[in-house]
Amino acid sequence: MAFGGLIALPFFWRFRRFPEGVLDRRQLQILVFLRNNGPHTSSEIARTLGYSVQFTRRALQILRRMGAVEVYLKPSRSLEDYGE
Question: Is residue 5 part of a domain?
Fold first, then answer.
Protein backbone atom coordinates (compact mmCIF):
# COMPACT_ATOMS: atom_id res chain seq x y z
CA MET A 1 0.00 0.00 0.00
CA ALA A 2 1.41 3.41 -0.90
CA PHE A 3 0.96 6.61 1.08
CA GLY A 4 1.73 9.75 -0.91
CA GLY A 5 4.28 7.92 -3.05
CA LEU A 6 5.77 6.04 -0.10
CA ILE A 7 5.54 2.28 0.15
CA ALA A 8 4.28 0.78 3.41
CA LEU A 9 6.94 -1.70 4.50
CA PRO A 10 6.05 -5.05 6.05
CA PHE A 11 6.83 -5.19 9.77
CA PHE A 12 7.06 -8.70 11.14
CA TRP A 13 6.62 -9.73 14.74
CA ARG A 14 8.49 -12.65 16.26
CA PHE A 15 8.37 -14.51 19.56
CA ARG A 16 11.21 -13.91 22.05
CA ARG A 17 10.06 -15.40 25.35
CA PHE A 18 7.12 -15.84 27.67
CA PRO A 19 7.08 -12.90 30.13
CA GLU A 20 6.80 -13.27 33.87
CA GLY A 21 3.85 -10.89 34.06
CA VAL A 22 0.19 -11.75 33.86
CA LEU A 23 -1.15 -12.08 30.32
CA ASP A 24 -4.62 -11.74 28.91
CA ARG A 25 -5.86 -14.96 27.24
CA ARG A 26 -5.69 -13.35 23.81
CA GLN A 27 -2.16 -12.05 24.38
CA LEU A 28 -1.12 -15.57 25.32
CA GLN A 29 -2.74 -16.90 22.13
CA ILE A 30 -0.74 -14.40 20.09
CA LEU A 31 2.49 -15.51 21.77
CA VAL A 32 1.76 -19.20 21.25
CA PHE A 33 0.89 -18.52 17.61
CA LEU A 34 4.18 -16.70 17.00
CA ARG A 35 6.20 -19.33 18.84
CA ASN A 36 4.63 -22.14 16.81
CA ASN A 37 4.40 -20.43 13.42
CA GLY A 38 7.30 -18.01 13.24
CA PRO A 39 7.24 -14.33 12.32
CA HIS A 40 4.06 -12.77 10.90
CA THR A 41 2.66 -9.31 10.30
CA SER A 42 0.04 -7.92 12.68
CA SER A 43 -2.58 -8.26 9.92
CA GLU A 44 -1.74 -11.93 9.39
CA ILE A 45 -1.92 -12.60 13.13
CA ALA A 46 -5.27 -10.80 13.42
CA ARG A 47 -6.76 -12.63 10.44
CA THR A 48 -5.55 -16.06 11.60
CA LEU A 49 -6.70 -15.66 15.21
CA GLY A 50 -9.92 -13.81 14.39
CA TYR A 51 -9.05 -10.58 16.22
CA SER A 52 -9.34 -7.03 14.95
CA VAL A 53 -6.15 -5.53 13.54
CA GLN A 54 -6.45 -2.66 16.02
CA PHE A 55 -6.60 -5.03 19.02
CA THR A 56 -3.75 -7.14 17.66
CA ARG A 57 -1.46 -4.15 17.16
CA ARG A 58 -2.22 -2.86 20.65
CA ALA A 59 -1.56 -6.30 22.17
CA LEU A 60 1.71 -6.64 20.24
CA GLN A 61 2.89 -3.26 21.53
CA ILE A 62 2.16 -4.35 25.10
CA LEU A 63 3.97 -7.64 24.52
CA ARG A 64 6.92 -5.78 22.99
CA ARG A 65 7.23 -3.59 26.10
CA MET A 66 7.22 -6.78 28.19
CA GLY A 67 10.07 -8.20 26.09
CA ALA A 68 7.92 -11.08 24.84
CA VAL A 69 8.05 -10.20 21.13
CA GLU A 70 10.22 -8.13 18.84
CA VAL A 71 9.42 -6.38 15.60
CA TYR A 72 11.61 -6.11 12.54
CA LEU A 73 11.39 -4.97 8.95
CA LYS A 74 11.51 -7.74 6.38
CA PRO A 75 12.65 -6.39 3.03
CA SER A 76 10.38 -7.29 0.16
CA ARG A 77 13.37 -7.66 -2.15
CA SER A 78 16.85 -9.01 -1.55
CA LEU A 79 20.07 -7.52 -2.89
CA GLU A 80 20.12 -10.19 -5.58
CA ASP A 81 16.84 -8.79 -6.93
CA TYR A 82 18.67 -5.58 -7.84
CA GLY A 83 21.32 -7.36 -9.94
CA GLU A 84 21.45 -7.25 -13.70
Answer: no
Rounded Cα–Cα distance for residues 74 and 60 (Å): 17
In whole angstroms, what is the distance from residue 17 CA to residue 35 CA? 9
Assigned domain for 67 exists: yes
Q: Is 9 left (phi over 0), alpha (psi -120 to 50) or beta?
A: beta
**Within a domain: 4:** no
Per residue in 22-35, pLDDT tens? 789 999 999 999 99
**Does residue 67 contact residue 31 with C-beta atoms inside 8 Å?**
no
**Residue 76: pLDDT band by 50, 70, 90 thresholds?**
low
What is the Cα–Cα distance from 63 to 19, expressed in whole angstroms? 8
